[in-house]
Design a protein that fits this description.
This protein is α+β, with helices and mostly antiparallel strands and about 140 residues long. The protein has a single domain (about 10-130), classed as Histidine kinase-like ATPase, C-terminal domain (Heat Shock Protein 90). It has helices at about 25-35, 40-60, 100-105; strands spanning about 10-20, 70-75, 80-85, 110-115, 120-130. A five-stranded antiparallel beta sheet has the order 1-2-3-5-4, covered by helices on one side. Helix 1 (about 25-35) runs antiparallel to helix 2 (about 40-60). The chain starts with 10 loop residues before the first strand and ends in an 8-residue tail after the last strand.
Amino acid sequence: MPDQPASHVDDVVTITLPAAGAYLSVLRTATAGLAARLNFTLDEIEDLRIAVDEACAMLLAQAVPGVDLECRFTLEEHLISIDVSVLTANGRPPSHDTFAWTVLSALVNEVDSAVDGGNRVSIQLRKTRTATAGSA
């Protein structure tokens, strides 16, 4: 958009793939590439890769066999939001008092979960880029 600063990024990337662990490397690679585009540090990129992997593992454990996993990345200037979702049989959000949830909370700035009316469970991750070296 012409009235936005040149450094502003506001893109949405959606990846849909089979809900199987064999495909998680695709999401880890996409996560790293998109975070690098926003100039996240190497440590922040690795945190995001681990967080996406952990969120997917939590969801795959209750996914209906044969369905697709959807991962939606929203990119802003200093922020990446990631929403991972899958259709489940029971429509229960992941427990927030597990070790896996604690790991997610330590890796990103915000983590939440939701269930839509059709038993689709999602985990939302948000991470803000820290100031780069040399900036105030």
